[in-house]
Design a protein that fits this description.
This protein is mainly alpha-helical. It is 57% helix and 9% strand. The chain has 8 helices and 3 strands. A 3-stranded antiparallel beta sheet has the order 2-1-3. The radius of gyration is 19 Å and the shape is globular. It starts with 5 loop residues before the first helix and ends with a helix.
Length: 235
């Protein structure tokens, strides 16, 4: 099977969610420019009720959101404030400043990935035909994509990391990515579907039974979030 070209991918992505792409592009263009040094992030509320995801308890979801996600937002904002202070001090050594920048990278990754993860949860786990066809075009079949995605997740069980279905604009390729932590995202890639494989995302409900957590994730995917993310690529 020939690999789809970038042009064909964008056309297909637009077909999947063309109705929302113009609105999303207009909203993005209307956003005011933000100051990179003064920016402070506001937490994004859960897009669903904490007890609404079958297989993931209300207690787990609430703890994950409050302690891990909100904790990362607070840490990121603190690091940003420290960076401002360090930059204003001409005596700040470069290695100290870079240490803060490394922490900023990790915390930014945690915040963004958690928002994407919660953003693609709370659904019924059913992908529509157009989206299944688009994924199948890159992986040979939808089942082949799911099999690889699950295998990556299982390999991360008992440790930390993320699994991301993403579109790499530089390569013109939709593929699954293994991520060891918040800072190992592939460059030039737009996340389409995100799975948190840190133990805090499942241990409270499943202990070491990682496969059961992965099953619960798949039954609770909100696939329209993936559709919207794909649509932004063609906006």
């Amino acid at each position: 099977m020939n690999q789809p070209t970038r042009r064909n991918f964008l056309l297909a992505a637009g077909a999947v969610a063309a109705a929302g792409s113009v609105t999303a592009a207009a909203a993005e263009a209307a956003k005011p420019a933000l100051n990179a040094f003064a920016y402070q992030h506001e937490p994004v509320p859960l897009p669903f009720k904490a007890g609404a995801v079958k297989g993931l308890s209300e207690k787990l979801i609430q703890s994950h959101w409050e302690n891990n996600y909100i904790g990362s937002v607070k840490a990121l904002n603190t690091v940003r404030s420290r960076l401002q202070q360090a930059l204003a001090d001409a005596n700040t050594p470069a290695y100290v400043y870079n240490g803060l920048k490394r922490e900023q990278l990790l915390r930014t990754g945690s915040v963004v990935l958690h928002e994407l993860y919660f953003g693609n949860l709370g659904g019924d786990g059913a992908a529509d035909g157009a989206l299944r066809s688009r994924i199948a075009a890159s992986f040979g079949s939808f089942d082949a994509w799911e099999s690889e995605f699950r295998k990556i997740a299982q390999g991360l069980g008992g440790g930390s990391g993320w699994v991301v279905l993403g579109y790499n604009a530089q390569l013109g390729l939709l593929e699954n990515y293994w991520m060891a932590d918040h800072a190992t995202a592939p460059i030039g890639t737009t996340p389409v579907l995100v799975l948190d494989m840190y133990e805090h995302s499942y241990q409270m409900d499943y202990g070491a039974a990682v496969a059961k957590y992965i099953d619960a994730f798949f039954t609770g995917i909100r696939w329209d979030a993936a559709v919207q993310r794909l649509a932004r690529l063609s906006a």
